[in-house]
TrEMBL record:
<keyword id="KW-1133">Transmembrane helix</keyword>
<feature type="transmembrane region" description="Helical">
    <location>
        <begin position="418"/>
        <end position="441"/>
    </location>
</feature>
<feature type="transmembrane region" description="Helical">
    <location>
        <begin position="560"/>
        <end position="583"/>
    </location>
</feature>
<dbReference type="GO" id="GO:0005886">
    <property type="term" value="C:plasma membrane"/>
</dbReference>
<feature type="transmembrane region" description="Helical">
    <location>
        <begin position="169"/>
        <end position="196"/>
    </location>
</feature>
<keyword id="KW-0997">Cell inner membrane</keyword>
<feature type="transmembrane region" description="Helical">
    <location>
        <begin position="275"/>
        <end position="295"/>
    </location>
</feature>
<feature type="transmembrane region" description="Helical">
    <location>
        <begin position="217"/>
        <end position="239"/>
    </location>
</feature>
<feature type="transmembrane region" description="Helical">
    <location>
        <begin position="128"/>
        <end position="149"/>
    </location>
</feature>
<comment type="similarity">
    <text>Belongs to the binding-protein-dependent transport system permease family.</text>
</comment>
<keyword id="KW-1003">Cell membrane</keyword>
<feature type="transmembrane region" description="Helical">
    <location>
        <begin position="504"/>
        <end position="529"/>
    </location>
</feature>
<feature type="transmembrane region" description="Helical">
    <location>
        <begin position="461"/>
        <end position="483"/>
    </location>
</feature>
<dbReference type="Pfam" id="PF00528">
    <property type="entry name" value="BPD_transp_1"/>
</dbReference>
<feature type="transmembrane region" description="Helical">
    <location>
        <begin position="97"/>
        <end position="116"/>
    </location>
</feature>
<feature type="transmembrane region" description="Helical">
    <location>
        <begin position="327"/>
        <end position="351"/>
    </location>
</feature>
<keyword id="KW-0472">Membrane</keyword>
Length: 600
């Protein structure tokens, strides 16, 4: 690849020094430009333009005013936002919630990571897989489940194990911290477990030979080495809570605990639409998230210990003796609260007539599930709509990511860095802000407003928004796989006269097929439950399942809402698992790696 790259650069240099380009040289030059331009165009249309309009709108509040549009610069919306007691309180609430959850989540995730990585406990395999299942469950479903459990007439109160004071406290900061902590502890666990895996045992062994106790080893050696990972966990969780819309639209809304993300949604969903207020709040939210990202960058630059060396030995696991049982019970309690109990509450409510009659045998029914599965009902249409949108989104996002990855792998390092940077940056953009940007582009911007496809109010725009939200994840997954391929494979095909598309389909795709399937399935599951885009870009043909679930829940039809959620989880999760097993079962195993070395 290096040789070809130099040849290309030399050819380009020769071309630029020559007095004129031949027709063939001009076509080749245009061809070389088309790839990078296509990459820029995709990112610009899907992410850059919507985000830019959100920022511009916040300082040009009358830009999209239908009656008296103006490009006058004004900081009035920002001044109004900071002067408004409601918005100012939502900013403070968001910061307080994010800071508190960052600490509690890191503490729980860190303890979970240490227990799974460094301790021999019974049922370790079951405990270790739980964070992945919790992480894939959308936050608003966990929030709705805990509302069913913790409300004054909920399941725990009916069982007589919920004091009224706990129920009252749940609908406020305490409840939000509790549900966020149980939902986000996997993120902290993943970050700290990765750092733990790189520690090795050399330093611990040396300290142990010197007579140090395990507590002293953790306080004086492992603790300082894990400090960057702990700080990164706090920063990542802080940003995640700031951007969350699932709990903001459920427990926080019910508790009148205003946060920024729901404020943006309220400003764009009320009539008349207050674009200026939405833009100002979006700018404040983006600034807060940007500060967190910058803090992360600075932290990595100043403290990035290299823990893995060629002589590193795996760390020993601690034998806890009699303490292994209390530790196991504590871990299983987290598993029960974070995964089993919420899913059980959703399943019971989906199979019951009313919440008030609780677990009485006469209360159980299949009506809600039958309604969700009956063709022609609004519930079934919403479910099918979500599954269809998710399948279409997964195909488009995976396909675009494959094309972009193949192109980026042959691009120079600057282009690759820019594309990866844009992808990772897009992950940090709150979905509610991106959705607001799509409204500005496709509903207000001349030239885009009248496009037949995608069109505002149509399912095509919702799918486009889903693709924008999923593309960064797909690109990272597929690009990492393509980056492992030896350039000689495609170079040999090119010398044989194979075109770019044939090389992609006949050589690259079979070798990275598993990664493409992984990106497809992750996108499919994620899109079925994608809430911010679904809520901001509701098609005129009807809402997708996440919007319908929230609407039914807020109109006291929580049984049908839970039935839709249960069926969506069963179809999306079961279908993805079956597809994954089929692919793994029938995919031919390579006897050698892509660089031609034998695999031992």
């Amino acid at each position: 690849m290096t040789v070809l790259h130099h040849e290309g650069a030399a050819a380009f240099a020769r071309g630029s020094n020559s007095r004129g380009l031949s027709p063939n040289g001009l076509l080749a030059f245009i061809g070389r430009l088309c790839g990078p331009m296509a990459i820029y165009a995709v990112f610009f249309l899907l992410i850059g333009l919507p985000l830019a309009l959100v920022l511009i709108q916040s300082v040009m509040p009358r830009l999209f005013d239908v009656q008296a549009g103006s490009t006058a610069f004004s900081l009035e919306p920002l001044a109004h936002a900071f002067a408004s007691p409601r918005i100012l309180q939502s900013i403070l609430n968001s910061l307080e919630l994010a800071a508190t959850v960052a600490v509690t989540t890191t503490a729980l995730g860190g303890a979970f990571a240490v227990l799974v990585q460094r301790c021999n406990v019974p049922l370790r395999g079951v405990i270790a897989v739980t964070p992945w299942l919790v992480f894939l469950t959308p936050s608003y479903l966990k929030a709705l489940a805990w509302v069913l459990l913790m409300s004054s007439g909920g399941y725990l109160a009916q069982l007589g194990i919920l004091p009224q004071a706990w129920s009252d406290a749940f609908f406020g900061l305490e409840g939000l911290v509790f549900v966020h902590t149980l939902g986000l502890f996997p993120l902290a666990s993943f970050i700290i477990a990765s750092a733990l895996a790189g520690l090795g045992s050399e330093l611990e062994d040396a300290a142990r030979l010197y007579g140090s106790s395990p507590l002293r080893i953790w306080l004086r050696i492992n603790g300082p080495l894990l400090a960057p990972a702990i700080a990164l966990s706090i920063i990542a969780t802080f940003a995640e809570v700031l951007s969350d819309f699932g709990l903001a639209s459920t427990i926080a809304r019910t508790s009148n605990f205003g946060v920024l993300t729901y404020g943006i949604y309220s400003a764009t969903s009320d009539y008349p639409v207050d674009f200026a207020s939405a833009g100002a709040q979006a700018l404040i939210l983006l600034a807060l998230v940007l500060l967190v990202v910058l803090a992360d960058r600075m932290l990595r630059r100043r403290a990035d210990p290299r823990l893995i060396s060629g002589r590193a030995r795996p760390a020993h696991r601690y034998e806890l003796g009699l303490w292994r049982w209390p530790a196991t019970i504590a871990a299983l309690a987290v598993v029960f609260l974070a995964l089993v109990l919420p899913l059980l509450a959703v399943a019971i409510r989906a199979l019951s007539q009313t919440l008030g009659q609780g677990l009485d045998r006469s209360n159980f029914t299949l009506v809600n599930v039958q309604t969700a599965l009956s063709l022609g009902t609004a519930a079934n249409q919403g479910l099918l709509r979500s599954l269809g949108y998710a399948g279409l989104t997964a195909i488009i996002a995976s396909g675009i990511a494959l094309l972009l990855s193949a192109r980026l792998d042959r691009s120079n390092s600057l282009m690759r860095t820019i594309a990866i940077g844009l992808s990772l940056g897009a992950v940090a953009i709150p979905g509610i802000v991106l959705g607001f940007g799509y409204i500005l582009v496709w509903n207000r911007l001349p030239g885009f407003r009248d496009w037949p496809f995608p069109h505002y109010g149509d399912g095509s725009l919702l799918v486009t928004g889903y693709v924008a939200a999923a593309l960064p994840y797909c690109l990272v997954v597929i690009l990492s796989a393509i980056g492992q391929l030896a350039p000689s494979l495609t170079d040999a095909a090119r010398l044989q006269g194979a075109g770019a598309m044939r090389r992609l389909l006949a050589i690259t795709l079979p070798l990275v097929f598993l990664s493409v399937v992984t990106a497809f399935l992750l996108t499919f599951i994620r899109t079925v439950f994608e809430l911010p885009m679904s809520q901001m870009l509701i098609p005129l043909s009807g809402p997708a399942a996440p919007t319908l679930i929230l609407k039914l829940f807020s109109h006291d039809q929580d049984g049908l809402a839970c039935a839709i959620a249960l069926m969506a989880m069963a179809v999306a999760g079961g279908g993805a698992a079956a597809a994954w097993m089929l692919v793994r079962r029938f995919m031919p195993k390579r006897g050698s790696n892509t660089r031609g070395d034998n695999v031992k």
